[in-house]
Amino acid sequence: MKRTIDYSLYLVTDRKVTDKKGRDFYEAVEEALQAGITLVQLREKDVTTEERIAIGRKVKILCDHYDVPLLVDDDIACAKAIGADGVHLGQSDESLARGRQELGNDAIIGISAHNLEEAQAALRGGADYLGVGALYPTETKKDASCLGLGPFREIIAAISLPIVGIGGIGKKEFPEVMKCGAAGCAMISSILGAEDITATVKAMKMAYEALRKGE
Ligand code: 3NM
């Protein structure tokens, strides 16, 4: 059975952010999980698959402890090796088909989309959700071009999949993105680089609950 995913508070990892902050990566991930993160993506660039697997195994133990699903960015072999719930892949039909073939129908496969055409292609290809961005300017992914909320709303209206916003989202932006009809927000620096990770995650969780209740 495919696991039910709550995309609302989606943490994407980047050890560069915790290193810069002088904090322990695993402690930061655990603090975020404890505060209420609902989904984690292991996104560690600049390492070999073996190194990613070693990091991923530790993150998987933390996610399991908090009963939170784990996806792996762009590395199907790593996702398989650590028993992750799925992968997040870039734009390419072949990689989506290959991910499905290698990980099976129960795996969660997310695809990055930057416009309606890419979103439609991912829907046709059998993606489970889409990551759409960058919604706001971001320092974390230097080559991400800023899409803005207008095209984001259009994609949400046209595509019958859960849509997650990404790029430059923090406490202030979170409610704006959710009000567009997003299933969730994927965030790196506003969580792993926060002065107080617990307070930041809890504030967004409260904002989400308030929106759900229509306050
Ligand atoms: N993908 P932060 S933007 C990983 O637009 C990533 O597809 C993006 O980091 C896209 O929350 C981005 O620190 C960086 O802005 C997200």
Automatic annotation (TrEMBL):
Belongs to the thiamine-phosphate synthase family. The keyword Transcription does not apply. Its EC number is 2.5.1.3. It catalyses: 2-[(2R,5Z)-2-carboxy-4-methylthiazol-5(2H)-ylidene]ethyl phosphate + 4-amino-2-methyl-5-(diphosphooxymethyl)pyrimidine + 2 H(+) = thiamine phosphate + CO2 + diphosphate; 2-(2-carboxy-4-methylthiazol-5-yl)ethyl phosphate + 4-amino-2-methyl-5-(diphosphooxymethyl)pyrimidine + 2 H(+) = thiamine phosphate + CO2 + diphosphate; 4-methyl-5-(2-phosphooxyethyl)-thiazole + 4-amino-2-methyl-5-(diphosphooxymethyl)pyrimidine + H(+) = thiamine phosphate + diphosphate. Pathway: Cofactor biosynthesis; thiamine diphosphate biosynthesis; thiamine phosphate from 4-amino-2-methyl-5-diphosphomethylpyrimidine and 4-methyl-5-(2-phosphoethyl)-thiazole: step 1/1. It holds the Pfam family TMP-TENI. Signal peptide: none annotated. 4-amino-2-methyl-5-(diphosphooxymethyl)pyrimidine binds at residues 41-45, 73, 112, 141. Its cofactor is Mg(2+). Binds 1 Mg(2+) ion per subunit. The keyword Magnesium applies. GO terms for molecular function: magnesium ion binding; thiamine-phosphate diphosphorylase activity. Keywords: Magnesium, Metal-binding, Thiamine biosynthesis, Transferase. It is an enzyme of class 2 (transferase). Mg(2+) binds at residues 74, 93. 2-[(2R,5Z)-2-carboxy-4-methylthiazol-5(2H)-ylidene]ethyl phosphate binds at residues 138-140, 168, 188-189. Condenses 4-methyl-5-(beta-hydroxyethyl)thiazole monophosphate (THZ-P) and 2-methyl-4-amino-5-hydroxymethyl pyrimidine pyrophosphate (HMP-PP) to form thiamine monophosphate (TMP). Residues 9-191 form the Thiamine phosphate synthase/TenI domain. GO terms for biological process: thiamine biosynthetic process; thiamine diphosphate biosynthetic process. GO terms for cellular component: cytoplasm. PANTHER family: THIAMINE BIOSYNTHETIC BIFUNCTIONAL ENZYME, THIAMINE-PHOSPHATE PYROPHOSPHORYLASE. This is Thiamine-phosphate synthase.
